[in-house]
Amino acid sequence: MTAKTSLRPEFLVSDEQDLRRSFAATHDIAIKKCMAQIDVHARSFIERSPFVCIGTQSQAGSADVSPRGDPRGFVKILDDKTLLIPDRLGNNRLDTLTNLLTNPKVGLLFLIPGFDDTMRINGHAQLTRDPDLLSLMTVKDRIPGLAIVVHVEEVFIHCAKALRRSKLWDPDQLQDRGDVPSLMKIILDQTSGAPSDPDAQKKLDEGLEEEYRKTMY
């Protein structure tokens, strides 16, 4: 067990002025690059992206980040101020959706495999069941039951440093998933307990893969 770390109060950052003393002034271009709408470059990025992280907060301030993925271009651009994100079948915790009902502010981070740059979009969101909009996001004859409408307030490209430091797309950095327990075993260990019989565990893992196959869309 890791020993508990005590944070020394004299080293804690207390306010924004204190924070900014530790950094050089913001580069002028980092401020100017922020746009209030989707331009041709942002459109191209979104249309290529198969993956976005959605950051939300509850009314009480509890934060959440949820990954969403589909074929490239799955986030639809309705106009230069509006995006449409399908809500696919999941575990029905509804963390993102319930947060947006009480606090509509939302942050998006788009990734493209092989690109070290990312696209950030901030705005506010609504939930819709409009059949005409939902039909735009049909995949394998499956239409989502709900969609997130994002009203864009801020758009900017984010530099490549984080992904380059992490070497996220470097094939030499790929790790063997077999080095750690399966998702099903981890969940069972954290809840009701995983079976000790390897054959029983294998059946559970196969069952999860079968559920993925049947319910992805």
TrEMBL record:
PANTHER family: FAD-BINDING, PUTATIVE (AFU_ORTHOLOGUE AFUA_6G07600)-RELATED
Residue span of region Disordered: 190-217
InterPro entries in alphabetical order: Pyridox_Oxase_FMN-dep, Pyridox_Oxase_N, Split_barrel_FMN-bd
Amino acid composition bias (Basic and acidic residues), ranges on this chain: 199-217
Name recorded for this polypeptide: Pyridoxamine 5'-phosphate oxidase N-terminal domain-containing protein
Domain Pyridoxamine 5'-phosphate oxidase N-terminal: from-to ranges: 41-159
SUPFAM superfamilies per the UniProt record, alphabetical: FMN-binding split barrel
Family matches, as Pfam families: PNPOx_N (PF01243)
Native source organism of the sequence: Roseobacter cerasinus
